[in-house]
Amino acid sequence: MTRSGSSEAGIAATETVNSTIRVHVNSAITVGVSAATVDINVTPTAAGATASAAHNVTVGTNNASGYKLQLASSTAATTLEKGSDTIPAAAGSFATPAVLTTDTWGYRIDSFAANQYAGITANTAPVTLKNTTTPSIAGGDITAVTWGANVSTATPNGTYTREVTYTAVTN
Questions:
Q1: Distance CA 60, CA 67 (A)
Q2: Residue 1 has pLDDT above 90, yes or no
Q3: How many Å separate Cα 98 from the centre of its chain?
Q4: Mean pLDDT score, 112-123
Q5: Closest CA to 129 of 147, 114, 111, 115
Q6: Inter-residue contact 118 to 129 (CB < 8 Å)
Q7: Residue 100 near residue 50 (C-beta atoms within 8 A)
Q8: Residue 58: is its pLDDT beyond 90?
Q9: Dihedral pair phi/psi, residue 104, rounded to 5°
């Protein structure tokens, strides 16, 4: 603090003070998908036929420590459903993906070996698809997720569905 002044008439007294302005920038994160619905069209065979379709999941964050991208069923159920008819989730896991067996469905990401899938987990046990240690690139980081189903003629025709949830969490 600086003070100056005089006791003489006509001379003004002054005082100055410095102040620090701080802006606290909080972490922000966004997640989005390139398609809200992924349609897989498969024509079954007696031994089972596999078909797949994909979409991209984009995560953006300014968090210096990066983020986790998680995936799970939106409920405790993991089967594809059409009324009382179901297609079970694949037996493979994120840690140990496997080829789809007959009448199962699952997901794969680029780090899996060719034709290897994991079964979706319940909403209480999400899997981490990606874990980064730096902020995302401008426009966000893209993770391609391919969904596949192997269906035999033992499965009644129709549209089977399951809603899944992608969650992005800052580290």
A1: 9
A2: no
A3: 21
A4: 97
A5: 111
A6: no
A7: yes
A8: yes
A9: -140, 165
Check: CB of residue 77 under 8 Å from CB of residue 161: no
The C-alpha atoms of residue 86 and residue 40 are separated, in whole angstroms, by 15
Do 168 and 135 contact (CB within 8 A), yes or no?
A: no
pLDDT band at 11 (very low <50, low <70, confident <90, very high): confident
The CA-atom distances, in angstroms, between 162 and each of 42, 48, 56, 86, 153 are 16, 20, 18, 10, 21
pTM of the predicted model, to two decimals?
A: 0.89
